Amino acid sequence: MRAPLLPVLAGLTAASVTFGAAMAPAVAAGANGPSYQKDDYSHGQLLSILPPGEHGLYNATDLVAFEAGGSRPAGTVDQKAKYDALIYGAPTLTDATLGSYFNDESFGVKPGQLSRTEVPSSSVPVTIYRDKSDVPHIYGDTDSATEFGAGYAGAEDRLFIMDVLRHYGHGTTSEFLGPSCSDEAMDHDQLLLTGYNDAQLQQQFDQLDDLYGAQGKRFQDLFTSYVAGINAYIAATQTDPTLLPGDYAVVGSPPQPWTIKDIIAIAGLVGGIFGKGGGDELGNARLLQYLTKEIGKAQASSTLESFHNRNDPIAATTIHDKTFNYDIPGKVDPATTALPDDAFAPLTGGPTGTTPNCDLTAPNIPALKVVSSVLAFPKALSNALLVDGKHSVSGHPLAVFGPQVGYFTPQILMQEELHGPNLIASGASFAGTNGIVELGRGVDYAWSATSAGTDNVDTRLERLCNPTGGAVTAEQKNYLFKGTCLAMTHNTFTETAVPKPGGPGAPVVITHELYYTVHGPVQGWTTSGGKPVAVTSQRSTYGHELDSGIGFLAWNTPSLTHDATSWMKGAGEISYTFNWLYLDDKDIAYYNSGADPVRPKDVDPDFPTWGDGRSEWLGMLPFAQHPHEINPSKGYFTSWNNKPAPGFSAADSQFSYNAIYRSLSLDEAINGQLAKHHGRITRANLVQAMSTASTVDLSGRRVLPELLPYLAHVTLDATSKEMVTRLTAWLKTGAHRIKGSAGATQYKDADAV
Fold first, then answer.
1. Nearest CA among 182, 232, 180, 227 for reference residue 201
2. What is the dihedral of CA 223, 108, 132, 257, to 10 degrees?
3. Strand 457-463 relative to strand 609-610, pairing
4. Cβ distance 327 to 649 under 8 Å?
5. Which of 388, 394, 538, 642 has its CA 20 to 30 A from that of 474?
6. CA 707, chain centre distance (Å)
7. 26 — phi, psi (to 5°)?
8. Of 251-255, 273-277, 486-490, 523-527, which range is least confident?
9. In 542-627, where do the E strands start and end?
10. Alpha helices per DSSP H over 469-625
11. Which of 728, 158, 188 minimizes the C-alpha distance to 432?
12. How far apart are CA 570 and CA 572, in angstroms?
């Protein structure tokens, strides 16, 4: 079973949660600890897990000890084995034994679990309480003080990976980790996604109060304090080397101070990985041109549509009984579709490699290990299971949330509790953005997410022009928009990359030249109809990387979020494309967030469109038209990155929304538990459903039953009969990919698999 990303409302892997009916009393945790379960509505019933563990500081001494004998600091891998064991303990799991596989997610620190206390500043009224899993519980006299503590704790636990992420987000990975083709390519790709200069980054922050009023101003104030907390920790490393991650010795320079621009860079990076969809119109053009060559123009389009199946009526969906029509074109005007002459031809004129002989240069250390981990983040595979109170033994809703980002240490997520006067939440956040809890719990509610991949990115072909009326060159820097010949805007990004100790290569100055139209960064140039065109990527969240923070902040604020309806309002403020799931002691709810463009009906959303003004977006999908529901008639929600609702079209890059989808394994597991327990299940039963579904081989469960009947009419030799026997036996047990025990080296049905 892969590890998801979150606690039950927080950490990084599956978690189980249910809400009771009354506030639990505060219980003192000791003279130096915060009150246990203060402001807690859950009676200690929220549980979480973050494999491998929360602790992420490996100083120079720690690294030497690890290299010498494999020892690790406490709290770095203490949650991995605990959660891995769940798969073997799930069949006999009870509510009483859930604590063997998950951690307590109550507010405060349980008596006897306080490990240490930190006061990061003599002038800021905040205290960080660390429990025995090294999770920081950050208690401030003011919300701003709490934010300062969040910045300090975030840097203490994730400083080096935060530094990698901010450089990645700024497109300066080569400068930080050393010159190589792979690092330079990452910088190119990120700049083509965002490509903001310092002024543009600052503007994103400065505009929040203009766009969102009081909550925008509050966000600005809180995150100013958050950045100050990060810098306070960096300052502390200058006098206490035990606080400094040992990785900096390899990088060759100490950590530099942070600014709010670094937070925006990380937000753009994370949102670009997990919170977007579509943008592969050129890929579809390539497929169309390939099919046209192979089977002819008449059949190519219908064949591609059969592959894509934008709206399969029997596709697995989270919402079953309501239709939310989105991005369903009418009669497409062929004049709006812009196909390159050769979609397979590489684009010209974009950022090019400048590192000498970079194709012969291996990545510098530690670039290979650190950056490959970043690139390896699963872009999907998160799951969620929610059951309403009518179908639970307790009479209150249940949930198991399992977002996934994989196992590595330090983990890309970090766990924390934020506790100020009007800032109360506990859960998980991405490193470098933990000024707010992004996946977790509030006072009397909890929420989580799976990536949705809704189509919020389009590819435009820009018609080039010459403002003097002369000939149009192959890489002209002017384009037509609504009848006017406009000049592209231009940014130059320069970084100096120096090889790191033990790394190959020579110092090099890398210059990235980027151009922009009204639609976004130019990816390169090609031709269409024999004429030169520029290829531009238009993303609905471009220039607004921080805006989603307004919705997250609302979920961290008890005065703003107190029931399913108010929580859904916060979800509507999140412009990244996610499936959000919610529960409290009465309700379960679902909302599909995102700044979803409304396209003209005569546009085919699966292919590039002209950028000259004829196919412009008509605005964004209104709040009420996003897939959403409270307390579904079927009694539960499941999400495993599947289609949100009937009628809600798959993005141009999404080809798997059909009748066979992994979320069906969650539905089957829940229905199996309900049938087994007469329609009312416990938390442990729901965790069992999650665990059961997580190991299902989808081909074995869905395809094998269709194949086996045909073999009954075929003469088989002895070997083939034995194969069929083993496959049949495997199918009868559920067609799982699971080892016989935690220590086994292969699946117990390895032959069948």
1. 227
2. 10
3. parallel
4. yes
5. 538
6. 36
7. -75, 135
8. 273-277
9. 578-584, 588-592, 609-610
10. 549-555, 564-571
11. 158
12. 5
C-beta separation of 425 from 6 below 8 A: no
Amino acid at residue number 14: A
- E strand or H helix at 509, and its extent? strand 508-517
Exposure string of 476-513, with b = 16+ CB inside 10 Å and e = fewer, is bbbbbbeeebbebeebebebebbbbeebbbeebebebe
> Token pair of 95, please?
């509510």
Residue 701 DSSP one-character state: I
* Helix (H) or strand (E) segment spanning residue 688: helix 683-694
Answer whether 227's CB lies under 8 Å from 261's CB.
no
Give the model confidence (pLDDT) of 162-200 as tens digits. 999 999 999 999 999 888 888 888 899 999 999 999 999
Q: What is the pLDDT of residues 117-146, one digit of tens each?
A: 999 999 999 999 999 999 999 999 999 999
Angle at 84 between CA 80 and CA 87, to 5 degrees: 160
Burial tier of 715 (Cβ tally within 10 Å: 0-12, 13-18, 19+): exposed
Helices (H), 545-598: 549-555, 564-571
Residues β-bridged to residue 165: none
Judged by DSSP in three states, 709 sits in: helix
Q: Which helix (H) or strand (E) holds 16?
A: strand 15-18
- The residue among 339, 352, 283 whose CA lies nearest residue 526 is 339
- How far lies 19's CA from each of 109, 289, 588, in Å? 19, 54, 11
